[in-house]
Write a structure and sequence with these properties.
Layout: E1 4-8, H1 9-18, E2 21-31, E3 34-43, E4 53-56, E5 60-68, H2 69-76, E6 81-83, E7 86-89, E8 97-103, E9 107-109, E10 112-114, E11 118-119
Parallel strand pairs: 3-7
Antiparallel strand pairs: 1-8, 2-3, 2-5, 4-5, 6-7, 8-11, 9-10
Helix pairs in contact: 1-2
């Protein structure tokens, strides 16, 4: 993966599938009886376990948790998943590529200084 740019979705899916667990942040929007994935962030190579948090509102949910790598890969492929008690679907076909950014530790990202290297 380059320091910044586009990565083929199939490459990222393969990377996620090989990991036992990854830390994720998900923004979900209510759609009938399911939750549609609106935005997702995956942190790779983070050995620090995330403190699971969930904010649920009537039409939106925000989750910060650790997921099995294959579950995160399935979401990226557009497969429906049950996550944290919610039925989550990905809208439309999966994209051909995704944006990635590799950050060094102690680098500011989204107004937060990260203590570990991360890829968005």
């Amino acid at each position: 993966m380059a320091n910044k740019g586009q990565t083929d979705t199939a490459v990222l899916v393969a990377m996620l599938s090989e990991r036992a667990a990854v830390n994720v942040r998900l923004a979900l929007v209510a759609d009938a009886q399911q939750w549609q994935l609106h935005h997702g962030q995956v942190t790779l190579d983070d050995d620090i376990p995330v403190t699971e948090r969930a904010w649920r509102y009537s039409t939106a949910s925000f989750l910060e948790l650790c997921l099995p790598g294959p579950t995160a890969a399935a979401l990226l492929r557009g497969e429906e998943q049950d996550i944290h008690g919610l039925h989550v679907v990905a809208p439309g076909p999966p994209p051909a590529s995704v944006s990635t950014c590799r950050l060094r530790g102690q680098q500011e990202w989204g107004r937060v200084t990260t203590p570990w290297p991360r890829a968005e």
